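Now for one record.
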Amino acid sequence: MMKTPLEKDFPKPIEDLTIQQTETTIEPSPSLTTHRHRHGTPPDCMIFSVLVTVFCCPMIGVGAIFASLKVRELLAAGDLSGAWRASDLAKFLITGGALVGIAIIVVILFLGFFKITCV
């Protein structure tokens, strides 16, 4: 008996279909829970915080000073992990304040140069 073209194209149905279920466990990343590869006490970056406050961006610099003071406070309390987090925050604020200050200086210089050349 000859099959029609439609009957030839269909594959045979799968009768024995089993689904294997595997168990997956997700563990938190070590970098989120502990500060590995960090030895000693974290830097408080107070000098850079003051410099950013005076020369670049006072608003962000004050936040960096408070974060630097928090590093010292947490180290005195013995909370090394919290001190590292506060140190990271101080570094972040120092970098942000410096970049904002540099951007403001560049804009002021650009506008001053533009004003001189247009007059």
Summary: The mean pLDDT is 82. Residues 112 and 118 are 10 Å apart (CA to CA). DSSP finds five helices and no strands in the chain. The radius of gyration is 31 Å.
